[in-house]
Description:
Blueprint: H1 3-10, E1 30-31, E2 38-42, E3 48-53, E4 59-64, E5 69-71, E6 76-82, E7 90-95, E8 105-107, H2 113-125, H3 134-137, E9 151-153, E10 167-168, E11 182-183, H4 184-200, H5 202-206, H6 221-235, E12 245-249, E13 267-271, H7 273-290, H8 295-314, H9 337-351, H10 354-360, H11 376-385, H12 396-416, H13 432-450, H14 453-466, H15 491-495, H16 547-563
Helix pairs in contact: 2-16, 4-6, 4-7, 4-16, 7-8, 7-9, 8-9, 9-10, 9-11, 11-12, 12-13, 12-14, 13-14, 13-16, 14-16
The protein binds ligand G3I and ligand 9MR.
Ligand G3I binds next to loops.
Amino acid sequence: MRPTLLLLALAGFGAHGAAGADDIKLNQLGFLPGAAKVAVVPDGAARDFAVVEQGSGKVVFTGALGPATRSADAGDTVRLASFAALTAPGKYRLRVAGQADSLPFEISPSAYQAVSAAALKAFYFNRASTALDAQHAGIYARAAGHPDTQVLIHASAASPARPAGTVISSPKGWYDAGDYNKYIVNSGISTYTLLAAYEDFPAFFQQQKLNIPESGNGRPDILNEVWWNLEWMLTMQDPEDGGVYHKLTNLRFDGNIMPAQATQPRYVVQKTTAAALDFAAVMATASRVYAPFDQAMSARMLSAAQAAWRWAQQHPRQFYQQPKDVATGEYGDQDVSDEFAWAAAELYITTGNDDFYKALRAPEQAATVASWGDVRGLAWLSLARHRKTLSAAADQQLIVSRVDTLARKLADGWKQSAYGIPMQTSDFVWGSNAVALNQAMVLLHGYRLTNQRAYLDAAQAGFDYVLGRNATEMSFVTGYGARSTQHPHHRPSEADGIAAPVPGFLAGGPQPGQQDQQHCSARYPSKLPARSYLDHECSYASNEIAINWNAPLVYVSAGLQALTPARPN
Ligand code: G3I
Ligand code: 9MR
């Protein structure tokens, strides 16, 4: 730190370096003109705020701060500054007497175009089995690794036709996260969420240009990117019986190396009910999405989905059990009632066969915010999306009421929260940033169904949260925002010799579990749920990246860009 900066920091000005610094917190990218616009201001003497134009310093908006409210999760007392009525495009800062000005932000009709494209491009950066060339990856070009053309059947996955040690080919797909393994369960929700984004906002994605190798082939780039993973997923199904391997993995995590340096043997491990059902749901979804582009592949995906569904009917309780010689991620789940419901819903939507609607057992299914281990909410979102074309078997009222009830519950939490966000204490889990975004995804569906402005504004708040309106005052998206995650637990970002992390990735986010503390030389700054975040490469429990966290970032950034009206109300 330069001496002048140090003095400013000591005087309480511009102390943007320290985690948990008591500064104004807002979405560092800014806002669409018609969006709700809210900043979180530490409680102090001031009762009002101003928005000033960056550069000229001209005051363009003034308003009263909201009431002082205590946040138990962040351990502070804050007031909200709301300036929705400011709609003129420009660059601004928020000003409160006695406090440092906020970080700069923009009001722009294209505020989230770039971050949305980057969030999707991140999947390209995490492609397995391929080199990334400079034309598409720029400075993040790298050599190929993990070809996965010679993968061993692990003893846990052995079958008569494929005894242990049999070699199969299972290339492509995305690396799951900061590690280099590939897991069907997590691939399921991630791939679905991207396909759902396309189903909901086709016009947005038709105009988006990602500059990936397939760009310009006549298909939207989001479908090109998802295709890379679908091709891999298809190879994870045993053609003999329709069962699906749970994961493709090393026995132990790779070290801090680039993909090309990896040498450990790769295995497919155990067939599970959860993998078969998540696979079935994704293939049924993909079958309808790709039908206009490739009839043959669409048909193949549907029969793959049906074969996996049949296998799951015959093996309804095959839960993942980590073999003794395997130490990588588990994605274990002892309750697959939600996976059954989700797969049934997608098969029903794609085939129109009422038997699948019955199998869904709709009245028994609640709607919940989705995560890799609880996918029942995805069934409701898909049914809501396709409600106009469903057969008479579907209970239309139930579909609307399930989504609306969940959206209302989230909006109630949003109204009561000190930071003005839907996140509650129990939401600060491993990957909490994706909880915020999956909540926003439900709220956007609620808005589409009911046109209630509060749902859109609450979704905006969840998005604002991950881009800076949070206690750590960080944007959790690499490369986006004035103060963003610099040291994600992401092997390429750590090992590529480039200072800046690979852009467009969402860090896991604050959560008080701190399961990695014993592996970290750096200390977490706080045990408070909303401040328990460590921007250090060692912190896999708060600072890893993962495909299931990036997917709702794609969905929500695209959704806000596509749905926000031109005027605030
Ligand atoms: O199920 C319990 C719940 O009953 C309890 O109330 C709650 C309290 O914290 O914990 C719940 O279990 C958590 C579980 O996720 C399900 O949410 C565990 O504490 C938590 O440690 C576990 O974290 C998972 C983590 O792997 C460790 O297994 C994350 O969800 C999951 O996203 C993460 O995934 C890893 C892969 O294994 C490997 N690749 C990277 C990826 C991202 O970090
Ligand atoms: O890098 C691994 C990360 O992808 C996983 O999410 C995490 C939890 O399973 O584990 C990480 O690997 C760590 C291992 O569990 C313990 N030793 C340190 C490893 C990180 O360098």
